[in-house]
Amino acid sequence: MMQAPVFEARAVTKSFASLRAVDDCSFAVEKGAIVGLIGPNGAGKTTLFDIASGATRLDSGQIVFRGEDISALKPHQRALKGLGRTFQLTRVFPKMTLMENMFVASPGDHRLHERAREYLELVNLVDRRHEYASDLSYGQQKLLELARILMLDPELILLDEPAAGVNPTLLKSLLAFIHELRDTWGKTFLIIEHNMNLVMGHCDKVVVMSAGSVIAEGSGEEIQANEEVLEAYFGKSTHPLGRAGHGA
Amino acid sequence: MCSRKYVPSNDTGLTRRNFIKTTGVVAIGTAIAGHIPTIFAQQKKPLRIGASISLTGKYARSGEEQHKGYMLWAKHVNELGHSYGKADLPNSGEPGLLGRPVELIVLDDRSDPTTGVRLYNELIHSRQVDLLLGPYSSAVTNAVAPIIENAQIPTPNPMASSTAIWEGRNLQWQVQVQPPGSRRLPGLTQVAMEHGDEKIAIIYEDSEFPRNAAKALRARAKEDGLQIVLDTAYPVKITDWTPIVQQVMNSGATVLAGGGYLPDAIGITRATRSLGYQPNILSLLVGVALPDYRDTLGKAALTVTGDADWTPNVNYPGAQKYVEAYRSEYGGVPEYHSAGGYGAAQILEEAVRRAGTVDDFEKIRDIMFELKTTTVFNLYEVAPLDSPDSGLQLAANRVMLQVQEADGKLENAVVYPDEAANAQWIYPFQ
Amino acid sequence: MDHPLQLLANGLVVGAIYSLVAVGLSLVFGVMRVINIAHGDFAMLGAYVAFFAWDWLGLSPLVSLLPAMAILFLFGAGLQRLVIERVVGRPLLASLMLTFGLSLIIWNSSQVAFTTKLRGISYLTEPVTFLGVTMSQSYIVGFVLALILTGALFAFLKFTAPGKAIRATSQNQDVALACGIDVRRARTLAFGIGAALAAAAGTLISMTGFIYPYMGFEYLAKTFTIVVLGGLGSVAGALVAAFAYGLLESFGTAMLSPRIAPALPFVLLIAIMIFRPSGLFGTSVADR
């Protein structure tokens, strides 16, 4: 089942002016796992994603991908090495067709044409492949974004709030897609998500951040029982699932 | 203020750069004085003639040329006792003016009228020069006019084409040497009428000088019975004249006149050629006279007419010797600014030599106002002292040029007036 | 209105030349959010390359067009790498100040090197007539070349890998990075291409008009209006707006007056600012 880590954050630290956004943060993502990264707003989750993908430079520590320190690499180099990411607010190229969006990552290679179609088929968008991406619904754009990442043939995919703003039907197909990618293609996922049902129901492991640090790590059950996590989220009294249960 | 020796200091507003310029200029003056046989230098006190010229700033290019005209004049007078074309006047026996070596004192007004005023005050009061020559440009001339009137020193102004400086002001001490700005494109309407042209289009840049030129053209066209079928200004910052020339074409005009400066002349010619428009006369302000015009357009410039204050091929007495002297002294062909400078100094020279004195300013002044003469630059006659426009130039005329081909080379032939012409006006425009 | 076809032709020719300058300016803004004040100066430099190639070597501007573009491509790309890259992602004012300074340096050095003398190339000046439209050959050749070059740019952006990289960078730099695109290379490439197209425009202007060191600023003023009209960063918008600008000048002069015609693009600009603030083809922030 779980194997050697494909991704590791080692003592990653990043400050913006006087704010320590990420503070000595370490955790690992094992190959083939779906790992949830949770924490209150401002915990440093997205900053960590930016550091992992190279959009933000870290102050100290290391990002290790497939056993190699990639901390000094530029974002596009990391992408080409197989580290894909999506964004919190979905980002596609609005003035390109779906097919063009797919080929941005590896343009001109016609052998990839079939693959692009195949991925679009997986997300049920193949019929609209010649339409502009701006014509898609928000949820569909998320699917397109995910399909596009696959063109890079990434080993690890970082998803920033995949469920946000997606209607339940689409969310279901999105989750099915993620599982399929993991089960049949062996992809690894690191997911930032606020929907606790999703995290607890679909993640093999959960990493909890608060105020820039990792405060807990473990299975869904372990996390739900962790006092420190409860305190970080709601003070002492309430359980995170108590709230999440009403939402989403 | 009245220290005898001139010491440049900050309170006179002179910058370091200007100090260097000024001392440089004085050094040139001294060098010219150095040509005179030592005997004269010892016997006769130098005659110090002052002027401010725009040697830096926006008029620098033209001011520099005018300065060259002054310097060349001083050199000739110091070597020969007269300038070119003025050998037959009285008192031309010994080198210098009335035997006194000429020393030019030229200061730089930085193209700024206010500085010009300060410098003429300085020349008159601190430096106590013997005589004056005018500055460059209408703007500076206009600003210093009251100073010179007050000081009562007879002064010829080489490069002030604005008539407003003289009109109705009854100036007593200053004369205009340059042809007035209102007499543009001479011969245009006459030649058009002779050939039976009826319709003229006037297009001009919407700024001070072209507006005035268009006004004068309009008046002359009406006077001579031409029908103005299009009369329109266009904005300063245009880069394509095709739409306007298209309109001229649609108006049915057979004479197109106007423009503004060099860019306008080139742009209008290009548009005319491009649209295949064939008027009988295409006549443009300013640009045609300049070598850049022919260089840029090549054969597209052929038979276009335009005017000039002066050209190097005019036949005024001494003009060709002057062009030769300029070439050997500075290299290249002189522009009208330098000929104007030389010509204005010649008016001063002639008045002084006819008066036989450098001290009796009234006598020199009276002669200067009554004189009817020719310089290397142009004809000369001004409105008399007792008239409202006293000192305004009456005789000087522009010449009409036409780009013609001679021995495979493009050049500006003088085609009007007949006295100055060295070629036939090619009609119609080809 | 007389000769509508002629007016149309005049407007299109001028528009085509404007478009060469404008698409580059818009491309550069799109890819790096830099308003390049020195963009017009690239046209000027290109014009002088063509002029001296003609004056010294006797090369036709149609021949020197390619070397002029190549030289300006390298110049633009080098400038981007060394200087402009440093202000990418900084506030707009930083890049405005920087490119304004560059423009002053280029313009003033050119004035020293080339003098303020007006110059031009007399080439293919003979007019030809078809369908009642008369025009000198240089205008027609200029028009066709401008169309070919703009067409080539569009094909490049649409179909080639580096072109797609430029478009992706322009639409979303972060995603482009996440897709493995070297956005820095895309920016350098785009800047060089912009400079090369401006140089092509300069070459054509040396043939149809006249050139002088200060000309860059006058063309920049027009093309900036065009780029805003078309939507900042939109290459297609710049193209359409350039033709609109040329046609407004041509028809406005004939139907209204030469004094009013230059104001028309600005009237259009104000109208567009009111009804479609992001320009003809612009994407508003919400669309991103």
Whole-angstrom Rg of chain B:
22 Å
Q: How would you spell out the order of helices and strands of chain C?
A: HHHHEEHHHHHHH
| CATH topological fold name of the largest domain in chain B | Rossmann fold
Please summarize the sheet with the most strands of chain B: 7 strands, mixed
User: Low-confidence parts of chain C lasting 5 or more residues at pLDDT below 50?
Assistant: 284-288
Low-confidence regions of chain B = 1-42
Q: What is the averaged pLDDT score of chain C?
A: 89
Total domains of chain B: 2
Structural class of chain C: mainly alpha
- CATH homologous superfamily assignment of the largest domain in chain B: Response regulator
| Total strand segments of chain B | 14
Level-2 CATH architecture of the largest domain in chain B = 3-Layer(aba) Sandwich
Query: Compute the gyration radius of chain C: what is it?
Result: 19 Å
Span between N and C termini of chain C?
44 Å
Sheet with the most strands, sense and barrel status of chain C: 2 strands, antiparallel
Report the principal-axis shape of chain C.
Answer: globular
Task: Name the chain pair with the biggest interface and residue counts per chain.
Answer: B-C, 32 and 39 residues
Strand content of chain B: 15-25%
Keywords (chain B): Signal
Pfam family, one (chain B): Peripla_BP_6
Domain Leucine-binding protein (chain B): 46-377
Organism (chain B): Modicisalibacter muralis
Short overview:
The complex is a heterotrimer of chains A (248), B (430) and C (288). With 248 residues, chain A is α/β, with parallel strands linked by helices. Chain A has 10 helices and 10 strands.
Detailed description of the structure:
Chain A: Keywords: ATP-binding, Nucleotide-binding, Transport. The complex is a heterotrimer of chains A (248), B (430) and C (288). In chain A, a hairpin with a 2-residue loop joins strand 4 and strand 5. Helix content of chain A is 36%, strand content 25%. The longest helix of chain A has 18 residues. Chain A has a domain of 166 residues: 3-Layer(aba) Sandwich (Rossmann fold), CATH 3.40.50.300. Chain A is of the alpha/beta class. In chain A, helix 3 packs across helix 4. In chain B, helix 3 runs parallel beside helix 12, helix 8 crosses helix 9 and helix 12 crosses helix 13. Chain B has two domains: 212 residues, Response regulator (Rossmann fold); 143 residues, Response regulator (Rossmann fold). By secondary structure, chain B is of the alpha/beta class. Chain B is built from 13 helices and 14 strands. Chain B is elongated and about 70 Å long. Chain C is mainly α. Chain C contains eleven helices and two strands, in the order ααααββααααααα. The C terminus of chain C is likely disordered. Chains in contact: A-C, B-C. At the A-C interface, helix 2, helix 3 and helix 5 of A face helix 6 and helix 7 of C.
